[in-house]
Amino acid sequence: MRPGWDYLIVTAANKEQAKAYREQLGVRRDIGLISGIKEIIVVPDPDGRRIGSGGSTILCLLEVINRELRGQDKKRQSPEAWMEALGRVRVLIVHAGGDARRLPAYSPCGKIFIPVPGESDSALGLTLLD
């Protein structure tokens, strides 16, 4: 069994939240809090319209298929190629597209980056994602 994940995908409610997620995830990767992952992707709901976890999962898997079959235009049309592409990678999807409306201080970056109690060996405090 391979160690780690090929893709960590975090879903976001809109483009603004996706930007904040990318920044937070980039910092975590840069200081070594996120390792063992080939690619980190943030996928926002299209046009800021809520599509739910099912719709978001489909968007995430389509993103993986597009990346895995890049440059193989004929294969992109084949459901068999899609299954093969998905079968050779490990994908972790974290649905984090909530607005945190009841926690306005955390609305800009969503509930996934809300601080939680605990000790951290890094410059950042622990969050739900960590």
Overview in brief:
Helices cover 32% and strands 16% of the residues.
Could you explain the architecture of this structure?
Helix 1 (15-30) links the parallel strand 1 and strand 2 (37-44). The protein is 32% helix and 16% strand. Strands 2-1-3 form a three-stranded parallel beta sheet, with helices on both faces. The protein has helices spanning 15-30, 52-68, 79-87; strands spanning 5-12, 37-44, 91-95. With 130 residues, the chain is α/β, with parallel strands linked by helices.
Q: Main traits of this protein?
A:
130 residues; single chain; 3-stranded parallel β-sheet; alpha/beta
Strands, helices and their partners?
Blueprint lengths: L4 E8 L2 H16 L6 E8 L7 H17 L10 H9 L3 E5 L35
Parallel strand pairs: 1-2, 1-3
Query: Proportion of β residues?
Result: 15-25%
The low-confidence parts are: none
Total of helices:
3
Shape: globular
| N/C terminus separation | 24 Å
Rg value: 16 Å
Total DSSP E strands: 3
Structural class: alpha/beta
Largest sheet, in brief, is: 3 strands, parallel
Order of helices and strands: EHEHHE
Compute the average pLDDT: 85
Lateral arrangement of strands in the main beta sheet: 2-1-3
Helical amount: 25-40%
